Amino acid sequence: MRVTGTGHASMFIETGAGSILTDPWVNPAYFASWFPFPDNSGLDWDRLGQADYLYVSHLHRDHFDAKNLKERISKKTTVLLPAYPTSELRDELEALGFRNFIETVSDEVLELDGGLKVMIQALTSPTDGPIGDSSLWVEYDGVRLLNQNDARPTDLSVFRDLGHVHAHLLQFSGAIWYPMVYELPQAAKTAFGKQKRARQFDRTVRYIDDLNASWVFPIAGPPCFLDDELWQFNDIFGDEGNIFPDQQVFVDHLRELGYDNAVIPLPGTVAEITADGCEVTQPVPDVAEFFANKEQHLRDYRERQRIVIEAEKASWSHPEIDVLATMKERIEPILSEAEQMAKGIGGPVRFDLVTGKNGDDDTDAEQVESIVVDFLDRQVRPYAGEKVRYRFRTERRLIEHLLYTGEVDWVNSLFLSCRFSAARIGQYNEFVYAFFKCLSEERINYAEGWYAEQKPDAEDIVLGDWVVQRRCPHLKADLTRFGKIEDGVLTCQMHGWKFDLASGRCITSVGHEIRSSRREVPAQPES
What is the distance between the alpha carbons of residues 388 and 211, in angstroms, rounded to a whole number? Predict the structure, then answer.
């Protein structure tokens, strides 16, 4: 098995039975904040794009690069699709022109032509990526590879039980906005960053020990930040609280722990993996020296990308949009369905919108509007001076752009961009960020149903003469809103799925039985 590094979480896997291209990210992501490092734009993407199979692990934009997928990846390729609870990944790939799909079943090995075997494990909680994350296992001629990328499964036994893994590729660096964007004293940011950096390394080492593969490839990070406004997030200043350490830093850490089986995959690195060894050819004479000169590489990269960043920024302003009115129109219908999340948040979340540069130490940013998303009264309204536990501060034009494009996932856009600052009273609340990645009816219904199902006593409702489970077995739509019964058949009007209530059988698809029973009507007293 030959594995060629193609940047970040992307790789080109070649076997005697076909090739697989994974997560081909090249173009800037998240409001032109994240770039792959090292620069991979000089690779022959037209050749790489002729792969037999394409695997996109999830919809985070440092894995799903719509521009590269549309322009450079052959539409004749066959997409290996994770078993996600919504169709969004397939829908977006189809919109780009892809037509050939293999819908995998999570944790089930699939044998492709020529003896190539693959298995995709899909993680589907609302906190896994943008409603989903996944890992890819590949086997050919007795050699096995696991591309874990960003995914954080509870354990790796499902892969380990299939036989010894020879190459384990996994994330090790930060991919979040915490703690950098929080309005805290620098000493506190550094302390929290040190803790997070240590947890990242510890988690990765636990995964490495759990799988015990022959060779370890640190991938899926870190991004680099080429905009002058975000330059300080690069790990080039000796800041021990920076959460974006690079591959060389992590490999040095592994060596200190006694591990000597790590391979750094740069763009263009080629690893010939066999059951007995791993022969590596690097595109640079000395990998350690390359990273020792990281700051200069970043400065050169920044100059090459300045025109790209400025063009992106020029597209963000949409002054014709009434932000408050449009947020009310888009978000209030979602709020009305957010039973679990509203309870979990329990109060208002405030957005302070500014013009000019944003940041807790910027003096040229002028606040122009404050808007509250109120999870108690389920409304979007102007801020009225009340105390809030959660506050975000960002440029107004970024919110304008999210509303202009109809973005349903503000996490996979605004928050991952790090182009905001935040403050909170109390502990981290996952419901806040889960809500803002679910600004569509499909996503909010799935997430609400998922949270509801974590309770041991699943809720039933009465519909006409029937008692049925509240959440549709398909994608967890609320049947108090979307359920309609005619002639003993329940139709979920969210996606049109039908269920025979007498048997509980799903008429639309195999599986997905519904819990249902006739409603018991109390006997009427004799007159």
Answer: 44
**Is residue 13 within 8 Å of residue 3, measured between CB atoms?**
yes
Q: Which residue has the tokens 């957005």?
A: 351
Question: For the CA atoms of the chain, what is the radius of gyration?
Answer: 25
One-character DSSP codes across 29-48: BTTTTBEESS--TTS-HHHH
Q: Whole-angstrom Cα distance, residue 370 to residue 351?
A: 6
Q: Tokens 């805290």 sit at which residue? A: 184
97-103: long-range contacts at Cβ-Cβ below 8 A with a sequence spacing of 24 or more?
Answer: 97/70, 98/54, 98/69, 99/75, 100/76, 102/78
Phi, psi (5° rounding) for residue 49? Answer: -70, -5
> Any residues with CB less than 8 A from the CB of 54 and at least 6 apart, and which?
20, 21, 22, 24, 73, 77, 78, 79, 80, 98
Whole-angstrom Cα distance, residue 2 to residue 283?
15
Positive or negative, the CA dihedral 327, 333, 337, 339 is positive
At residue 505, φ and ψ (nearest 5 deg) are: -75, 140
pLDDT by residue for the chain (527 residues), tens only, comes to: 999 999 999 999 999 999 999 999 999 999 999 999 999 999 999 999 999 999 999 999 999 999 999 999 999 999 999 999 999 999 999 999 999 999 999 999 999 999 999 999 999 988 888 889 999 999 999 999 999 999 998 889 999 999 999 999 999 999 999 999 999 999 999 999 999 999 899 999 999 999 999 999 999 989 999 999 999 999 999 999 999 999 999 999 999 999 999 999 999 999 999 999 999 999 999 999 999 999 999 999 999 999 999 999 999 999 999 999 999 999 999 999 999 999 999 999 999 999 976 544 455 678 889 999 999 999 999 999 999 999 999 999 999 999 999 999 999 999 999 999 999 998 888 899 999 999 999 999 999 998 888 765 568 999 999 999 998 887 677 898 889 999 999 998 767 789 999 999 998 876 678 999 998 866 555 54
Q: Is the peptide bond before 473 cis (omega within 30 degrees of 0)?
A: no
**Gap between the Cα atoms of 392 and 327, Å rounded:** 15
Q: What is the DSSP letter of 525?
A: P
**What is the C-alpha separation between 175 and 171, in angstroms, rounded?**
9
Phi, psi at 391, each rounded to 5°: -140, 135
DSSP string, 228-284: GGGGGGSS-S--TT-S---HHHHHHHHHHTT---B----TT-EEEE-SS-EEEE-SS
Residue 298 CB partners (closer than 8 Å, separation 6+): 37, 224, 226, 234, 236
